[in-house]
Amino acid sequence: MVFALPDEVLKRGNVRASISGDVVEITLDRPEARNPQTPATWTALAAIGALLEDSPEIARVVVIRGAGTAFSAGLDRRMFTAEGVPGEMSLAQLTRLSDVDLASAIAGFQEAFLWQRRVPAITVAAVHGPAMGAGFQLALACDVLLATAEATFAMRETSYGLVPDLAGTHPLVTAVGYSRAMELCATGRVVSADEGYVMGFVTRVVEDLDEAVAEMALSICATPPGAVEALTSLLADSLDRTRVEQAEAERHAQVQRLRALMSGG
Q: Which of 115, 152, 219, 259 has its CA 20 to 30 A from that of 28?
């Protein structure tokens, strides 16, 4: 068991999870194939997310990374074949579902990419090597995206006749704007970490990824409990508010922080 999750759920999805102090590390763990993703991967990630939402005290920082030389090469290409991935539905089998059932299945997949901005912990994508398709969308799901200079990104779905459907279009458009997001998604071209930083979806390009992640986690965990956690919802929800509404949210959040500080909480 890891965080009260059955080991078989994580192993089937090729996902590892560990905790050290207030930091949870989630690792996509099929390095020999550059950490491709399948529905089992998304089931494992969604299960971890559900646990962190139900028990927010578990972590103040959540780091998502890939084992080996890549973050994630995206969807497992076997999903496109008639045989598919053993034990999982292929894309051909999924399309035999009704429209309602297929949309429901995709909604389930999307849960692996939505919880990162719902939990009070700061979620950090630690990206080295390729982050393609679903890998790019997983990195975009996080609050912060740290990348090495060797990291590369691409939204490859249209190259296969599909559209990005793992909740990645909203953070991408928010970060880079409509026109740039359209160009990236329509062409599927590969973007370097430096270009991603200039565009705005990469938070910082770092030389030593492990060191940068450790320093960020240390800084966050050194803050008084409650402040960063309140900040996550304040900033995430700002996208759906006007400036006046956001100012109101700021003052209500500050009232709670001031009372907690004065009461020793």
A: 219
